[in-house]
Amino acid sequence: MGPVPAEAEGCPREDDRQTGEFKLIETASRSVLGTMNDFAYLAAAQRAEKNATDLVGLSLQLVQTPCGPLYRSHVSPDREITAYVAEHPVTR
Fold it and tell me: Is 64 a residue whose pLDDT tops 60?
């Protein structure tokens, strides 16, 4: 599967300009697919409950969600990225 325009997948054009070109690819991992489906369900539930359109706030909530593939390490995406940054400091 080749590059997909951002607008074809419902992404705002400004995100496309900020991040550059991206590709959508298939996964053979049912765990990854299940996690993505779980996050989509949680996001939809959060948005419906609060009638929210604040995607940054939503992402800050979801990042704290325990995530199956991370159970062996740091459990949630926020803890995982914090540990990664601590282990890989930026040097100039």
Answer: yes
Return d(Cα 36, Cα 87) in angstroms, integer: 26
Q: Give exposure, 5-36, as e/b (b: 16+ Cβ within 10 Å).
A: ebeeeeeeeeeeeeeeeeeeeeeeeeeeeebe
pTM: 0.57
Residue type, 57: G
**In angstroms, rounded to a whole number, what is the distance separating the alpha carbons of residues 25 and 2?**
8
| Owner of token pair 């939503």 | 58
Rounded to an integer, what distance in angstroms lies between the CA atom of residue 21 and that of residue 64?
A: 27
